[in-house]
Design goal:
- This is histidine kinase.
- There is one protein chain.
- The chain is an alpha+beta fold.
- The strands form 3 sheets. A 5-stranded mixed beta sheet has the order 4-6-7-9-8, with helices on one face. Strands 1-2 form a two-stranded antiparallel ribbon. A two-stranded antiparallel ribbon has the order 3-5.
- A hairpin with a 3-residue loop joins strand 8 and strand 9.
- Helix 1 runs antiparallel to helix 2, helix 3 packs parallel to helix 4 and helix 4 packs antiparallel against helix 6.
- It is flat and about 90 Å long.
- The two termini are 35 Å apart.
- The structure holds adenosine-5'-diphosphate.
- Adenosine-5'-diphosphate binds next to helix 4 and helix 6.
Amino acid sequence: FDVHGAPIIGQDEKLKDIVLVFHDITELKKLEQTRKDFVANVSHELKTPVTSLKGFTETLLDGAMHDEDLREKFLTIIAKESERLEVLISDLLELSRIEGEHFNLNWEEVDLAVLTSEVTTMLADKAKEKDMNLYTKTDGNVKVLADSARLKQVLINLINNAIVYTPQGGDIRIRVRGQEENVVIEVSDTGIGITKKEIPRIFERFYRVDRARSRNSGGTGLGLAIVKHLAEAHHAKISVDSKPGKGTTFRLELSRKPFEEKE
Ligand code: ADP
């Protein structure tokens, strides 16, 4: 509580009363803590690749660059870490744009059959590298009002995660169903799954069930936070169903009339 007090003086100039005002600042404190945690997380996430870039560059300058094998090895690490840094910064910028006051969606009619096929084509090589099949099944009229670029980002993040968190040889299924009032997109994998306890946390910024696994696969820990914000901006519902060791399904339910829902 935040407490303010003021004396009430009577006409005889004697203290008559004291007024105390109690302000419940729990929410404010929580917000402040979230902001502090976020800054600490960002600093840590930025520092890790920078430390590594600095270390390998110094080692090269100290003489390692005269050894051809070491030079190649260290430069490869430097290139990989620079790329991580770039992805992290662009995810952070994207998140701050989405969370910004002036963020607006570019509403247009989007055919989810077309959008899904664009995304699966984009990620086909990545799936192939892990011997995975990407199956897509679409039925009904799957046109909705949405921001095509942003919705594409949602699908990329979900399908990319499905590939990353599924062992070699698994299957990814993308199901798009046109219902009377909604269009439902499901991305299912046969991967490592997520425990019930962890499901609510995975949409938090920088939360990862397994930090090392996420890092190794180029993850920033921001993908699902971006998905959650973009789903909310579309007035869409997102849900997760998962069985550890068996697989996960992410389900996105888009309303055909997103504006009416808002009212
Ligand atoms: P990251 O960059 O770490 O993948 P995300 O925000 O996309 O960050 O996801 C947060 C965490 O949720 C991941 O680190 C992972 O632990 C978990 N996760 C996301 N998608 C899946 C999935 N399809 N299967 C299992 N775990 C997942």
